[in-house]
Amino acid sequence: MATLDDLVARTQQDLGSVITSPPLAPKLLSRPPFRFLHAVISSCIEECGFAEGLFDGDELDAELITGKDAKLAYLEKIIRVVEGATGEQLSVDAASVVKGEDAEQTNLFLHALARGAADSK
User: Fold this and answer.
1) N or C: which terminal CB in the chain sees fewer CB atoms within 10 Å?
2) What is the pTM of this model?
3) pLDDT in tens, 2-37
4) pLDDT (0 to 100) of residue 92
5) Residues 93, 105: contact at Cβ < 8 Å?
6) Mean per-residue pLDDT of the chain
7) Cα-trace Rg, the chain
8) Helices (H) and strands (E) in the chain — how many of each?
9) DSSP per-residue letters across 17-54
10) Spatial distance between the Cα atoms of 109 and 78, rounded to a whole number of angstroms
């Protein structure tokens, strides 16, 4: 099984091929905070058109997504869309992501997000 460092390097490569921002710093990818993930997802939408129209209102601004329930709802929506776009069943748990846990599964989700975004480019 790949180490977290291996997964982070692959995330940098995969996402870096489809988005130009935010910077994919290893520190952020090793324990991705919600605002960083929101920025990555927003870039996939803006730069690739992936999942365009999925989010509206407060969901478009990470600063307005406050509280655990709102963050969970946001992540669960994008996880379902990525699963549908890639045909993969992801093992990522939105609650763990919000808590900053299970960085390995979060990076695997980001790999799938990159594949979905690349396909829609």
Assistant:
1) N
2) 0.96
3) 999 999 999 999 999 999 999 999 999 999 999 999
4) 97
5) yes
6) 96
7) 13
8) 6, 0
9) TT---S---HHHHHS--HHHHHHHHHHHHHHH-TTTTS
10) 10
Q: Are 75 and 100 in contact (CB under 8 A)?
A: no
Q: How far is CA 113 from CA 23, 66, 82, 103, 107, in A?
A: 16, 23, 6, 15, 10
CB 68: neighbour CB atoms within 10 A?
A: 12
Query: Amino acid identity of 57?
Result: G
**3-state SS of the chain: helix, strand, coil percent to 5?**
70, 0, 30
Q: Tell me if 43 sits within 8 A of 19, measured CB to CB.
A: yes
| 16 contacts 24 by C-beta, under 8 angstroms | yes
The residues, ordered by sequence, that sit 6+ positions from 25 with a Cβ below 8 Å of its Cβ are: none
As a residue count, the chain comes to 121
